[in-house]
Amino acid sequence: MNKKELTAFAKNILHSHKQLRSPQIMHPAREWFIGLLVAAGIFGVCAFVSVQAYLEHRHIDLTVYVDETSTATVYRESLVEAALDLFSSRSQRYDELQLGATPLRAEEEPEVETSVATSSTVATSTEEVSTTTAGQPTNQNPISI
After folding, report:
1. What is the pLDDT of residues 49-97, one digit of tens each?
2. Which one of 49, 82, 91, 124 has the minimum C-beta count within 10 Å?
3. Hey, is 55 helix, strand or coil?
């Protein structure tokens, strides 16, 4: 192989992909025709399935008939009276609790002085600490359920 053959071979390889050799590879009209044909086919299949579903279900009646005798409600006067008595007693108890309850108020806490404590004012572990609630309001009527 000589230099002339190598350059011709290299030119053939390098310049071969600049353009399509066959202009028949791309056909826009053919591509559009195939796309529209596929779309029409899908539309036709959907229309066929819809018509079949309509024909199958067109005879179904959507009205529901209810038998009046099966839904008759039995009125038990004793149960109704017992329920009304229970609710009225609960209402009275609630009203009593509302009238007797003391409203809870948030008391202002006294300001605590921040100072460095000396060794004489520090409580030791042997001293007892008082935990009485003498100044706090208590509820006279606790709510019971």
Report:
1. 999 999 998 888 877 777 766 666 788 899 999 999 999 999 999 998 9
2. 124
3. helix
Name the one residue in this structure whose structure tokens are 């596929």: 38
Beta-carbon contacts of residue 104 (< 8 Å; ≥ 6 apart): 137
Length of the chain: 145
HEC letters along the chain: CCHHHHHHHHHHHHCCCCCCCCCCCCCHHHHHHHHHHHHHHHHHHHHHHHHHHHHHHCCCCCCCCCCCCCCCCCCCHHHHHHHHHHHHHHHHHHHHHHHHCCCCCCCCCCCCCCCCCCCCCCCCCCCCCCCCCCCCCCCCCCCCC
Q: Rounded distance, CA 20 to CA 26, Å?
A: 10
* pTM assigned to the model: 0.31
- The tokens for 122 are 């520090």
